[in-house]
Amino acid sequence: MESHLLVIVFLSFGLSFIFALGGVGSAVILIPALAWIGVPFNLARPTGLFVNCVSMLGATWLNFREKKLDVKFGLPIIVSSFVTAPVGAWAGHFFPTQTLLFIFIGFLFFSGSMMMFFKGSKYANQYREDRTVAGPLGVGVLAGFVSGLLGVGGGGIISPLMVVQGFNPKRVAMVTAFSVPFSSFSAFVTYAAMGSVSVKILVFAGLAAWTGGYLGTRVMQKKMKPQSVKRLLGGVLILIGIKFLWTMA
To answer: Lower CB count within 10 Å: N or C terminus of the chain?
Structure first.
């Protein structure tokens, strides 16, 4: 594992930077990348969660500084995903690795398709301001469980489901970046309690991920359109899913 440390740091920084350009966490692609360089899947998942947490904290810090966060809007998602993420992490230990890999492949196709084909722009003029909590709570429950089970963070679930409920896409993007660190952290703590972490990897990968997420968000806010980046990243996720299926066939 020591020989892989530099590669893990490079991947954590690079993928956090690239995925921050699209406003999402990098765990969904970091986990297969770690698996391909020889990191066991049960160690790759908590590492992905930790990297997701710190990279999205970098993005959230920028949003907070620019006063773009709506804490009350995101609170139902944060609370419900924070509670259910450990349940997903705990449940993951009862699934065979092969089964989890197939579930993970399904998530790659779902997340990649939503990034490529979901047109949030057609909801851009919707400004749902009611404070109903049922919809966001349900989204948080699902996102938290999947985040813990697969180690991917819940951003790929939160964003599309909140937008189709009528919430403005720009507000949802800010809340997603704000919510993901909470669910990722609670699931990560569960993995840590079960002994499935490497402290040395987490320290170096975490520092690299925070820097990558912060810089990627700066570049995105000033120079790039997140939707264009998301389409590209979505295509990459689908190709990775196909490669996984080919390898397991």
So the answer is: C
Helices 134-150 and 155-164 pack at an angle, to 10 degrees, of: 160
Task: Give backbone dihedrals phi and psi of 73, rounded to 5 degrees, phi first.
Answer: -65, -40
Residues 80 and 142 sit within 8 Å (Cβ to Cβ) = no
Among 57, 58, 51, residue whose Cα is nearest residue 26? 51
Chain centroid to Cα 241, Å, comes to: 16
* pLDDT given for residue 152 in this prediction: 78
CA 5 to CA 209: how far, in whole Å? 14
List the one residue out of 203, 214, 230 whose CA is nearest residue 17: 214
pLDDT of residue 80: 92
User: Mean pLDDT in the chain?
Assistant: 78
Q: Among 24, 35, 8, which residue's Cα sits nearest to residue 216?
A: 24
Task: Give SS3 for 59.
Answer: helix
Say how far apart CA 160 and CA 120 lie, in whole Å: 8
What pLDDT was estimated at residue 4? 76
Alpha-carbon gap, residue 1 to 198, rounded angstroms:
10
Task: Name the amino acid, one letter, at 32.
Answer: P
Predicted structure pTM score? 0.74
Q: How far apart are CA 167 and CA 136, in angstroms?
A: 10
Domain boundaries defined on the chain = 2-248
